[in-house]
Amino acid sequence: MSLDVKNAIQSGKTVLGIELGSTRIKAVLIGEDHAPIATGSHVWENSYVNHIWTYSVEEVWEGVQDSYQQMADNVRQQYGITLQTVSAIGFSGMMHGYMAFDEDEELLVPFRTWRNNITEQASKELTELFNYQIPQRWSIAHLYQAILNQEEHIGNIHFLTTLAGYVHWKLTGQKVLGVGEASGVFPIDLNSKNYNQTMIHQFNELVVPKNLSWNLEEILPNVLVAGENAGVLTEEGAKLLDVTGNLQAGIPLCPPEGDAGTGMVATNSVAKRTGNVSAGTSAFAMVVLEKDLSKVYPEIDLVTTPTGNLVAMAHSNNCSSDLNAWVGLFEEFLAAIGIQVDSNKLFETLFKQALLGDPDGGGLLSYGYLSGEHMTHFEEGRPLFVRSSGSNFNLANFMRVHLFTAFGAMKIGMDILLKEENVKLDEVLGHGGLFKTEGVGQGILAAAFNVPVSVMETAGEGGAWGIALLGSYMINKKEKETLEEYLNENVFVDQAVKTVSPDPKDIEGYEQFMERYKNGLSIERAAVENHQ
Questions:
Q1: What pTM, to 2 d.p., does this model score?
Q2: pLDDT at 504 over 60
Q3: How big is the CA angle at 509 (ends 503 and 512), to the nearest 5 degrees?
Q4: Residue-wise pLDDT tens digits, 409-445
C-alpha cells in the first residue's frame, strides 16, 4: 500500500471522473500523479422504444450511483478508507442527443441519443441555412426536427441539454456545458468560444412562424472552457451521487464534456496536427485542424477541443456491436460443447487470428450496421455478412473483415480529410475496446489511415480518466498555463506508448476491401428495404 496514495485520499487530494458511455458508465479516481487509484463501472445498454434509441432517467442514475459506489468500495477495500471528499469532480457522457425539460424540470420526451438517425430533414435545412455542417445527431437538429414534426412538447421547452449536461445540472444546479460538448449542441464561434450568435439569430428568424414561447439562446446551457469552475456539488447532489451519504457537498466541478473531448484529453490529442480514434459501440476520429476546411462536407463534423480549438470529426454510428455479437456466438458454441473460456482470452485469440488473414480479407464483405449509419446515409441498418463463391472463407479472414468494417464508415470521412483536404497528421492515438488486444486494432487502423497509430498504457481508462484530468487541470493549473502545456508537462511526460506503423501490403489490402465496401452498399440498402 502506498502511504502517499492513502494520505491523498484522506486529505481529499484526489479527483473523480465519471463518464456515461454507450455500454458502460465508468468512475475513475486519480491521485496527485494523475494515475488511477480506484475504479468502478456499471454496464448498461440502450433500448429501442417507439423507433427511438434511448436510456431512461432511472437507468442514468442507477448507473451513475452504481459506478460511484463500486469505486468507493474499491477505495475502502484497498486502503481501508471511507471516501468523503475529493478536490474536484468531472462528468462526461456520449455526445449530442436531445434532453428537453419543462419549467418544472420534468423530461418532456424520452432521451434521444446520438444513435438516432431521425433528423435528416432538419439536418439538411440547417446545414443549408448556416452553410455549416449540422449532423443528424446534434441537439439542434433534434430540436428543429421536433419543430418540423409539430411535436406537442415543443412549446413547453424550458431547458435543452445533453446527457453530461443533465447529470451536471442535477448535481450542481448549474446549466452549463464545456465548449467541446456544446459544439455538438450548436455551432461554436472560435473567437468568442461561445455559440455562434449569427446562427442563433438565423435560427430564431427561421422559427418565427411557429410562434414559440422561447428564443434559442434562452433554452441552451451556458458555455465554459476547460479550466473554468462549473459550480460545486450541492447537498442534494451529494446525496444523489453517493446514496450512502458519506460524500460531502461543496466539491468544485469542472465543465461537463462529451466523450469526444475527454478522448482527446485521455490521449493527449488536443494540440494541432494530432488526432485520436475512439473505437467502441461507435467509432470516431478527431483531428485538430491547423486551418478551416475548404468547404462543407456532410461526412465531416466540425467541433472543438475542450479549450475551443477547431476539430474535424469523422463519426460513424456503428463499430464494435456486430463484431461483439459474433464473438458471443463463438463463446456460445464453446459453452455448448462444454468448454468454458475467459471472455478476454476469447477476444484476444480471435483478434490475433485476423493478423493471419489475407491483406484484403479474402474477398469477404461485412456491414456491422446494427443501427442507422449517417456516413453512408442509412436511417436504419441491418448487420450483414456476405461472401462470393470465390472468397477465401476462413476464420482469419472472417475476423479480419469484421475488424476492417468496424472502421469502414469512419474511413470514408477520413479519406476526405487526408486525401481531399490534405490535412497533415503526425500520428493517431487509439483508445477504446478495439485496441485492447495489442497490435491488432492498431495495425488495421494504421492500414486504413496510412498513419502510425499509437496506444498508451492508460488508453483502457478512456474518457473517465480524461474528464478526471480536466478536473485536475481546473484546480492545479498555473496562471496562463494551457491545457496542452499541463498535459505535456504533468501527465504524459513519462507515458509509455506503443506505436504500429502501416504496412504497405496492409494499406493496399484495406483499400481493396473499401472498394468492395463502397460498391456493396446497394446490398445493405436492399437488406434494409426488404426488412421494412
A1: 0.83
A2: yes
A3: 145
A4: 999 999 999 999 999 888 899 887 888 898 999 999 9
Which residue reads 502511504 in cell numbers?
Answer: 3
Three-class DSSP category at 240: helix
CA atoms within 13 A on the CB side of 284: 28
Question: Strands, E, within 73-230: which ranges?
Answer: 88-93, 99-101, 159-161, 176-178, 188-189, 194-195, 222-224
User: Number of H helices and number of E strands within the chain?
Assistant: 19, 22
Q: How far apart are CA 101 and CA 96, in angstroms?
A: 16
Q: Using an 8 Å Cβ cutoff, are 427 and 453 in contact? A: yes
The Cα 330–Cα 379 span in angstroms is 30
CB 90 within 8 A of CB 64: no
Which whole-number Å values give the CA distances from 468 to 18, 40, 286, 463, 498, in the listed order?
8, 14, 20, 8, 23
Q: Give residue-wise pLDDT tens across range 89-135.
A: 999 999 889 999 999 999 999 999 988 889 999 999 999 999 999 99
Are 354 and 442 spatial neighbours (Cβ–Cβ below 8 Å)? no
Cβ-based neighbours of 103, under 8 Å, separated by 6 or more: 156, 158
With beta carbons less than 8 A apart as the criterion, state whether 285 and 507 touch. no
